[in-house]
Amino acid sequence: MQLVKRIEIFANYVELGKILESLEKSGIPGHTVIKNVTGKGRGGTISDDFAMTLLDNIYIIAFFPPEKLPLVEVNIRNTLNKFGGTCFISDAMELETTKCVG
Predict the structure, then answer these.
(1) Which of 14, 32, 53, 82 is the most buried (most CB within 10 A)?
(2) Cα Rg for the chain, rounded, in angstroms?
(3) Across the strands, what pairs with 80?
(4) Gap between the terminal Cα atoms of the chain
(5) Residue among 2, 3, 16, 5 at smallest CA distance from 71
(6) What count of Cα atoms within 13 Å lies in the side-chain half-sphere of residue 6?
(7) Which tens digits make up the pLDDT trace of 15-73?
(8) Predicted model pTM
(9) With contact defined as beta carbons under 8 Å apart, do 93 and 6 qualify?
């Protein structure tokens, strides 16, 4: 197993391009985006009663080597301070697996 950092970002769909650009600029090799995220947080309840619009929230998750943390932190903080969103960074373990030869 190998230690990695996990970054999770909740933001408005309109800002997706800017956030992904910041992740790429930080050297994060890949990500997953989940659209139309609903829930309740500090800002109150986000409802899923309406059809998907540009005002919907997204959830971005990515993993990166711990040594990239300072660069990721600066780039993502700058982006979210401009455009809004919430970010969490935590420790994770990557389970190294063999390639399936099926």
Answers:
(1) 14
(2) 15
(3) none
(4) 23
(5) 5
(6) 10
(7) 999 999 999 999 998 999 999 888 776 665 555 555 455 568 999 999 999 999 999 99
(8) 0.82
(9) no
